[in-house]
Amino acid sequence: MSVREGQRPICPICGVGTLADIVFDVDPSTREPAQSADSGEMVLYSCGHRVPGPPLDEADETELDVERRTSEETVDPGPS
After folding, report:
1. How many angstroms separate the CA atoms of 61 and 56, rounded?
2. What domain range is 42 assigned to?
3. The pTM is what?
4. pLDDT tens figures, 40-72
5. Where are the beta strands (DSSP E) in the chain?
């Protein structure tokens, strides 16, 4: 999903929806996100389409989609 900065990726299925979220596997026993080495990436688009991405343990950095933020957009991690 190569996109220039400031542009939202377009749905590869319909060409209409834009990137809404990137999520990882959900543990069925708790329904909580479970991001581990074998977790699979799922790219969600505003049109409702879901496109599976690579598993974390098999993907290289060019295959994974990452959220990039400027220092002004980050938050203080809070007390440890």
Report:
1. 10
2. 19-58
3. 0.56
4. 788 899 999 999 877 767 666 665 555 566 666
5. 19-24, 26-27, 32-33, 40-45, 50-55
